[in-house]
Amino acid sequence: MVKPLVAGNWKMNGLTADLATVREIAAGADTITRQADMMLCLPATLVAPGAEAAGSSALAIGGQDCHAAVSGAHTGDVSAGMLGDAGASAVIVGHSERRQDHGEDDATVLAKARAALAADLTAIVCVGETEAERRAGDAVARVVSQLNGSLPDEGTAGTMIVAYEPVWAIGTGLTPTLDDVAEMHGAIRAHLVAHFGTGEQMRILYGGSVKPGNAVELMGVAEVNGALVGGASLKAADFLGIADAYRA
Ligand code: PGA
Question: Cα–Cα distance between 41 and 195 in angstroms, integer?
Fold first, then answer.
């Protein structure tokens, strides 16, 4: 059994006032820890106060991106070690918004994932096809090629998580059919098992328009080991409502 993870991604949202939401989610996380782990990936400015707000609760705090280098002349960037120092235990790398807005390719994502692992952070590596790729019937091939290029060999089930996020499902209210989710997660699992000794236990999250109303069916699909949640993670009731999919 793979213990599921419900992770939120606040993207470029959140001010000090929103730490109240972190506190509310932390309190809720403590009620579900036997069934699922919970995490919030906060903007870099909120990682330290967010970790303090989460305190000793079951809510883990993550970052949303890191530079591949340990330190140096990279104005405006944040290293994995800095995120860890601020209280993060994980970092998202290769989110499609980074791949699109910052031209990050698989090699960049791989380097960032390596940096995360080297800094003792869990790397949440995002992959996902565009709408055009899905229409062309290339979705699985595209995602497998991203896995090949973005996952460091040294990753293990304890240190690396894959998040499958179809680009066209992010922030749109659209989701793939459950059959399509099952096909993709099955293909990702097969890849992980073939390439990693602990591939059987590696978490594969689904992300893209996960809401309280569709969480039960999406989280019920084979090889879906949790969710990466954008918009719906900004409100405690919605995010905890999604985690409820795992309540026994
Ligand atoms: P969404 O975003 O839940 O708002 O669709 C998911 C993500 O980008 O991680």
Answer: 27
